[in-house]
Each structure stands twice: as structure tokens, then as C-alpha cells.
Design brief:
Oligomer: single chain
Largest sheet: 8 strands, parallel
Shape: globular
Number of helices: 13
Order of helices and strands: HEHHHEHHEHEHEHEHEHEHH
Mean pLDDT: 96
Number of domains: 2
Low-confidence stretches: none
Number of strands: 8
CATH topology of the largest domain: TIM Barrel
Length: about 350
């Protein structure tokens, strides 16, 4: 068994007690855009086939200010790998993903987190389904523990009852548990619980951090967070997707793009969301608003890029390594205010 890195310093709960923790997510989308993951299956085969790309992605997020290197094991579970005929590499993929995350974590002071997620086969109320899903969680958690992760994230789960299975597996292993639910168009869990009710159930069952991730963008996740913060006494997480959802289209799965008539099936999700992305300033505003509510485990899920995480870190008053290259528009050739910028350039801006 590998021990958690001493270089990481304080653990998750100690860090949260001292202030906000940032956890970059959204690896599937980031690597799909770069050509290392196939949209649709979204299986993290890049862990084995292109480990250099995974390390580079972790490093970019570390430089941008992420306090956590989340192992790239989203959808690296038995059911998904069976679907694509690669069940035989399941353990290797999980262990390798954690080792890649640790390589980069040790370049800074980041924690290493294991990751389990929605099974897509869970059926509420069916005992056999629960046993199958719990076994999937147990094996992934077991490998993560064996590899010495600092804590484990269970994410993008729409059923509280499924999230509880993940929580049981994590707590049985003796690790801190971050449990994040995905809330879709109807602002309830699949069982019909409000996010606040669901969060309270998870806290009562032993979760150390509860909250929301994925599905909803900043504008439609934020209104759900206040009630969660009021309902629980544990730490609260918020990791929206980096897309402009609204009351009419509250999830990135429901977004439309009337400006483009060439999207397959007229649904931007998941490969034509570019025109609907949040900018860095929207992520910064979400960070400030979520912190004001009491959220202290923050990140960005699908659609996240390093500049979003840097903006989040800077909104918290931090200056990560990548802040060396944050915008300095005073030096821009036309928009700048530096006295050395020719006045004719500044005046020409109105004609551009």
C-alpha cells in the first residue's frame, strides 16, 4: 500500500477548516477537446494510452490553483469498461490514474483524491442493482486506498440512494468522503428530494463534504446552494459546469443554440457547447457568490479549462503560479493605458 504523500501537508478536512479548497474537474471534456478521449463513451482510456496528456492536464490545473489532483477515474468503472470491451484493464486504469495524479501533486502541495461516479445502471429500490453498484464502488475505493489517496470524491450521482452506497464504501475504507449530487432540469434528486434534504441525509450518514457538481452551470446551481448550506453543518461543495445555463434551460444537457443550424440532432450537448461557455469572469463571480453563502469546496466540472480555475483562485485572493500570466490590458497595443501606447492606436479602437 502506498502512503499519502507527506509533501501534501495538511489533509482535506484540515485545509477546509483553514479556508476554501479548489478541486479542478472536467477532465473528460478537456481531454476530448484535445483529442485524447472519445465523446459518447467518455471512458478515460488516455490514462493508459496517453499518460503524458493526463499529466500535462493535471499540471496545468495545478499551476492554475487547484489544491487537489483528482484521479482521472470518472467512468473508469466495471460497467463502462465492459461496455467498450476493456474490462480487463479496469484495475490497471484505476491504479495508473492515481499514480499520474500523484506525480503532479508532489510537484506542489496538492492532495490526491480518488474518484467514483454515477454507475448508470442503478435502479432505485432494486436490491440486486444496489449490490452490483456497491461492488463496483468497493473495488474502485479499494484500489484508491491501496494507492494511498488522501480522500475520495463520489460525484455526478442523481440518486441519494446510490450516493449512499458510494458513501458507505468510502467510510468503510476510513477515508474522508466528498459526495456531490447532479441535479437535472427538475431541481430534485431522482427520488424527489430537494438538494437540501438530500445533503442532510448524506451528512447524517457520515459525509464530510456534501454538495453539487456537473449538470448545472453557475447561474442555475447557485440558487440551490443557500438552502444546502443552511441544512447542513458539514462542508459544502459546488462545482458547476462551465456553461451558461438559465431558468428555461437549467442544465447543459438541455441547452440549445439557435445561432447554429448544423448541430447533429440540434442538441449542443456534448460536442457543440463551445458557443455557450462561461468566461473566466463569470466563474470568478460564481466563486465570490458561493463563498458568501458558505461554500468552501469549490471547482468547475465539465467544460473547465485552466483559465477558469485560475480565475476561481484569484477570486479567492490567491496568486497561483499561472497568475504570472494573468491579463494586463494596460500593455495592449490598442486597448492599453500605458503612456507608451501611441495615442493614435487608442483612438483607433473606436473604428475596430
Amino acid at each position: 500500500m502506498n502512503e499519502p504523500s507527506e509533501a501534501a501537508g495538511p489533509g482535506l478536512l484540515e485545509r477546509l477548516a483553514a479556508g476554501p479548497v479548489i478541486c479542478a474537474e472536467g477532465y473528460l471534456f478537456e481531454l476530448e477537446r484535445s483529442g485524447y478521449v472519445a465523446a459518447g463513451p467518455y471512458v478515460p482510456e488516455a490514462v493508459l494510452e496517453h499518460p503524458d496528456a493526463v499529466i500535462r492536464m493535471h499540471r496545468d490545473f495545478l499551476r492554475a490553483g487547484s489544491d487537489v489532483m483528482l484521479a482521472f477515474t470518472y467512468y473508469a468503472h466495471r460497467e463502462k469498461l465492459r461496455l467498450i470491451g476493456k474490462e480487463g484493464v479496469l484495475e490497471e486504469m484505476n491504479r495508473t490514474a492515481i499514480r499520474l495524479a500523484r506525480v503532479v501533486a508532489q510537484e506542489g502541495s496538492a492532495l490526491v483524491a480518488g474518484n467514483v461516479c454515477n454507475s448508470n445502471i442503478f435502479v432505485d429500490g432494486e436490491a440486486e442493482s444496489a449490490r452490483t453498484v456497491r461492488a463496483m464502488f468497493d473495488e474502485q475505493v479499494g484500489w484508491a486506498v491501496d494507492e494511498g489517496v488522501d480522500f475520495i470524491v463520489a460525484e455526478t450521482i442523481a440518486y441519494v440512494s446510490e450516493a449512499l452506497l458510494a458513501l458507505e464504501a468510502i467510510k468503510a475504507a476510513g477515508l474522508p468522503a466528498v459526495i456531490n449530487l447532479a441535479i437535472f432540469r427538475d431541481p430534485l434528486t431522482r427520488e424527489g428530494l430537494t438538494p437540501a434534504e438530500a445533503a442532510k441525509r448524506l451528512e447524517d450518514a457520515g459525509a464530510d463534504v456534501v454538495g453539487l457538481n456537473c449538470s448545472r452551470g453557475p447561474a442555475t446551481m447557485l440558487p440551490l446552494l443557500g438552502a444546502i448550506c443552511e441544512a447542513v453543518s458539514c462542508h459544502v461543495a459546488a462545482l458547476p459546469v462551465a456553461y451558461r445555463t438559465d431558468d428555461i434551460e437549467p442544465t447543459f444537457l438541455s441547452l440549445s443554440d439557435p445561432g447554429c443550424d448544423c448541430i447533429p440532432e440540434e442538441r449542443p450537448f456534448p460536442t457543440a457547447l463551445d458557443n455557450l461557455a462561461c468566461n473566466r469572469y463569470e466563474i470568478a463571480q460564481f466563486t465570490r457568490d458561493a463563498r458568501a453563502l458558505g461554500v468552501n469546496y469549490l471547482g468547475v466540472c465539465c467544460g473547465a479549462a485552466p483559465h477558469h480555475i485560475r480565475s476561481m483562485a484569484e477570486a479567492l485572493g490567491r496568486q497561483p503560479e499561472a497568475s504570472k500570466y494573468s491579463p494586463d490590458m494596460s500593455r495592449h497595443a490598442y486597448l492599453g493605458t500605458d503612456p507608451e501606447i501611441p495615442a493614435a492606436n487608442r483612438e483607433f479602437v473606436r473604428e475596430m
